[in-house]
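Hi everyone,

Forwarding the result from last night's run.
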Amino acid sequence: MTTAKAVRRAIEAMPEGAAFPAKELLPLGTRAAVDQVLYRLAKEGKILRVARGIYARPKWSKYVNAPVMPEPYAIAELIAKNKGAKIGPTGAEAAHRLGLSTQMPTQPVYATTGRTAVVKVGDNTIRLRHVAPQKMQYAGTPVGTAIAALQYLGKRQVTPRVIATLERTLTPEDFRMLRQATTALPGWAMDKFHEYEARRGA
């Protein structure tokens, strides 16, 4: 089977709207051959080039005659993975995801152990903000999302009700891990957990 046929079949087997890195297809041919096939498919409109080295199989909207772009976080994850970096939502999005805030960031901003960067994806912009690796030990996990949310809300807004919401939202194992993340959480957050447990046990 030629590289062109193999690449086309691999892409056709992907879900519509799925993003993928070009290097995922390298087992099907040389880098030059795979890049050439991807270039042709993008030109034909069979795939979308959403960022450098990142493509997507289009999913067409029922309401407008235009392809729907993959979720920004999925793209950001692939960009980070390509560079061997970790990634996670920043505070505002983390709090929104966990039901702790109704505010949604107007522009996607993600924390990463990689370089700070701005990536254009269609009409949207994804911002990657460098964070020290020691602060990203739980990145990409529900625990990491909860830590980012707590840090974003701050001491005054983290109440026993917020802790209770986290306990309902996270799995028991993740909540226990969050409770024990003493090196990632500020001291005041640990105090909030103590306060919550004291009230619950009263």
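The chain has a mean pLDDT of 88.

Cheers,
N.
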